[in-house]
């Protein structure tokens, strides 16, 4: 009986971060503090989400964000909370957010890091009590210490990330992150107010039988993608789509599968944002043994040109992602041949 009552509750996030500091010889605790700042803000957002219905903070504000999307009250609250935590923490000199058009200058010009963040992904799901999340990427600044953050600090390729992660607000709240040495997941224990290591060294399965895509836009999909989806149906794969990027990614990371948000005839570059959605999840996918592309090239190698740049996104079990790419390339080659034949006949 005493053994059960005194059993270890596990490794706390702060202790885990402290133990891993030696992986960063160029850092002197700043990155660890930055991760703690994100974890603290996530605790506050978790509280706000759990009481959203009672506090009357669900629903929209009646205006659009810089993306032209309806802004939710919790979008604004999350953006303020994370900006405040990162600014007061002192280790971030600049932030780009889904909710803000330009760079947020924190005033910490001595800081070494910049952060790209989607404060509340899937916020429209709040009203129907479906899980949502936060996605973040951390980079070392390129501009000289002591000066304001620059556009060049923010427009870095995903390969330059030194850390990335997400927070999942669901039946339990989880913080999943990587600093380039594998992926680890921490579950929040509200009675203690702490995250504990619950999913050490997370690994993406080589193959899977789940595909996640909004098939409502099927008629606008590339022919190669339609062909791939037909093979998924022939094999009787499970179609699972929450409509929350973090939720769909998390499930497929644990169980094996592919998440797809493609280019369409209406949205040639897809709808997901490269800097603060796709880069972070691509980093986590690769660190866990998975794969992430835009259908043709590695997500982490795309050179961003502006803060809110969009990209198609294929991420998950490598065997499934590669097969989807093969279908896309096969049909693209056929289209090229077809166009050349038409020109010759003309």
TrEMBL record:
Localization annotation: Cytoplasm
BP term (GO), one: fructose 6-phosphate metabolic process
Record domain Fructose-1-6-bisphosphatase class I N-terminal: where: 13-200
Annotated positions binding Mg(2+) 1: 98, 118, 120
Annotated Pfam families: FBPase, FBPase_C
Cofactor: Mg(2+)
Reactions listed under catalytic activity: beta-D-fructose 1,6-bisphosphate + H2O = beta-D-fructose 6-phosphate + phosphate
Pathway info: Carbohydrate biosynthesis
Enzyme class (EC, first level): hydrolase
One Gene Ontology MF term: fructose 1,6-bisphosphate 1-phosphatase activity
Domain of life: Bacteria
UniProt keyword Hydrolase present: yes
Residues binding Mg(2+) 2: 118, 121, 277
GO cellular component: cytosol
Keywords of this entry: Carbohydrate metabolism, Cytoplasm, Hydrolase, Magnesium, Metal-binding
Record-annotated Fructose-1-6-bisphosphatase class 1 C-terminal domain positions: 205-326
Residues annotated for substrate binding in this entry: 121-124, 214, 241, 271
Primary location: cytoplasm
InterPro entries: FBPase_C_dom, FBPase_class-1, FBPase_N, FBPtase
Keyword Metal-binding tagged: yes
HAMAP family referenced in this protein's UniProt entry, alphabetically: FBPase_class1
Assembly mode: Homotetramer.
NCBIfam families: PRK09293.1-1
Family as reported in the entry's similarity comment: Belongs to the FBPase class 1 family.
PANTHER family from the UniProt entry: FRUCTOSE-1,6-BISPHOSPHATASE-RELATED, SEDOHEPTULOSE-1,7-BISPHOSPHATASE, CHLOROPLASTIC
The protein, known as: Fructose-1,6-bisphosphatase class 1
Organism the protein comes from: Flammeovirga agarivorans
